[in-house]
Amino acid sequence: MFSHMMIGSNDLDRSKVFYDAVLGTVGARPGSFDEKGRLVYFHNGAAFLVTKPINGEPASCANGATIGFATASPEQADAWHTAGVEHGGTAIEDAPGERPGSGMYLAYLRDPDGNKLCALHRLSA
Hints:
Blueprint: E1 4-8, H1 12-24, E2 32-33, E3 39-43, E4 46-51, E5 67-70, H2 74-86, E6 90-91, E7 97-99, E8 104-110, E9 116-122
Parallel strand pairs: 1-4, 5-9
Antiparallel strand pairs: 2-3, 3-4, 6-8, 7-8, 8-9
Helix pairs in contact: 1-2
Domain VOC: 1-122
Pfam families: Glyoxalase (PF00903)
Protein name: VOC family protein
């Protein structure tokens, strides 16, 4: 359903360190800057971009929004979470783990700009 997601950042170099580490755990290559100065990641047919807001105002995170990243296993979700915390992110909500009755293994972080992120692995029945 989604082709891409774009979020704002006030420090693109800091974001590159964070997202290179976090997205690298799910197989994405390090991001690169495009001709407009946006940080771009391509993986599995989708794009994830990080940019300074074009209106010149400071970037802010969306209250109530969460960006989810699919992981291949609980171990990959754990690696994603660890990489995020080690590279400037903040662990939030419950510790990474299976949510009883949901069939999902989840891990939550906030990136250095405060955007809420989730690693999700659907457990087999």
